[in-house]
Structures are given as structure tokens and as C-alpha cells.
Amino acid sequence: MIRVLFFARLREQLDVGQMELSAEEAGTTVAELRQRLTARGEPWSTALSADNVLCAVNQQQARGDEPLTAGDEVAFYPPVTGG
Amino acid sequence: MVEVSIQQEDFDVGQLQRELLGQDTSIGAAAVFVGCVRGVPDKEAAASDAVLAMELEHYPGMTESSIQAIVDEARQRWALRSVRVIHRIGELRPGDQIVYVGVACGHRGEAFEACEFIMDYLKTRAPFWKKETTPSGARWVDARDSDDAAAARWDLASEPAGD
Q1: Cα–Cα distance between A60 and B68 in angstroms, integer?
Q2: Any idea which architecture A2-77 has in CATH?
Q3: Domain ranges in chain A?
Q4: A21 to chain B, minimum CA–CA distance in Å?
Q5: pLDDT digits 0-9 by tens, A12-67
Q6: ipTM reported for the complex, 2 dp
């Protein structure tokens, strides 16, 4: 399984904080996962197509070409605003 | 001493100062930054837009590791004797302390620089998100380009974009 987390504005837009997908459902890269989620229609397409959405794999910021394997934790989130 | 804490509780700057210095007499300078919750929003502050409360969300686990990575990077750049970072989460009110960065080392130049470096990177890399409550409702705070510019000054290898 692959655990997918959403934070802040994204979590509210999607009304989901986390979910589990099989490796087959998730796809092989971050970009593929994002594309598959976006294809679910609203609110996914609007929330995840924003060009400032960031992603982390196993708690390290990652790019779209980052490969995914079973057991990974993937997070999508807006630009950070701490401090 | 190097310590990173994410907590709801407030902190006491005087006590932190004593802990930062400890018994280390090689320390000649301590630079401390304390961030507070502003009671006015960033943009076009209208009187009706007063910030009543601020909610801090974060990504447990990644928050701690990303701040630790920033502190490690600072320790490679400067000969730091002691570093302490505290970031509060949960609901805060205007005037509340929100973040503490304390750095102690031999001389003031490196203390000032390291403290600012850690804050600049914390603002652009650590996964925290602020949500303001105002009389007209709650809204997520937008990231600021000026924060990215401040972090970019330090010329660290850039982080990958989201996609």
C-alpha cells in the first residue's frame, strides 16, 4: 500500500487528510499519482492542478519523477507558511 | 547543545538563554530570534480584518527532520556551540510567541548570520501552515515571495519543485 497525505488548504479542499492506495492504483511516480488523482474530477482536479502544489515522499521534498514503491508515504501540500 | 522542539506550550526566553549558554565559556555571542503572532494581516490591513486567532498546522515527523537538516547545514557553515529551535503549533492569539531560534558561538558575526539563516530556511522549508481567523472568517495565509528571496540569498542548492 501507499499512504497519501494532504495538508492545510489541500486537505480542506479535498475533505480528506489521508488515504491508502494500492501500488497499482497509485502508479509508479509522483507525477503519475498526481495525474490519477486529478482525473477523479472535482474537487481533485482543481485542488491538485494548482502549479504551486508541493510533494514529499517519505518526508523528503520530491519532484514529479520520484519513483513510488509499496510502503511509501506521499504528501501533497501548499507552499509552507511557518515561522 | 542542539535541540529542535515542536510544541503547543509557550516558552520562556530567559530560561532558554540560560540553557543555550550552559557552562560553555568558549561562547562569546548569542543571537536569538523570537517571532510573534501579528494582530494585523499581511495584506491591505483593514480594521475589520484584525486577526483574532491563528491556527498552526504541521506535518509531524517531516517538520522535525526538515528543521534538523537546516540546523545541520548551519553547523557546517558556522562553528556553532549551541543551537535551539522551538516552533509552536495549535491555536495561538495575537501577541503570542510562535517561534524561537537561539544560536551561540564564539563571535557575533557568525551568531547573527546563523540565526538569520535558520529562520530564512525554516520559513521556506519546514512544513507548517498558518490559518488566520478574522471577523470576516478564516483563511489560509499565502506564502510570500520575499521569504523565498531571503532564503535564496544563502545560495544553498535549490530544493526540487513540486512537479
Answers
A1: 13
A2: Roll (3.10)
A3: 2-77
A4: 20
A5: 999 999 999 999 999 999 999 999 999 999 999 999 988 899 999 999 999 999 99
A6: 0.94
Which set of grid coordinates corresponds to residue B133? 481567523
Radius of gyration, alpha carbons of chain B: 17
Å from B25 to nearest chain A CA?
A: 30
Which chain A residues are Cβ-neighbours of B162 within 8 angstroms?
52-55, 63-64
Q: Chain B residues within 8 A (CB-CB) of chain A?
A: 35, 56-59, 61-62, 65-66, 87, 98-99, 119, 122-131, 140-143, 147, 159-163
Segments in chain B forming alpha helices (H): 13-21, 62-77, 108-125, 145-152
For residue B75, give the C-alpha cell.
Answer: 553547523
Per-residue pLDDT band for B68 (boundaries 50, 70, 90) equals very high
Asked: is B2-39+48-152 a CATH 3.90.1170.40 domain? The reply is: yes
Contact call for A9 and B129, based on CB within 8 A: yes
Query: Helix, strand or coil for residue B136?
Result: coil
What the block records as the C-alpha cell of B119 is 529562520
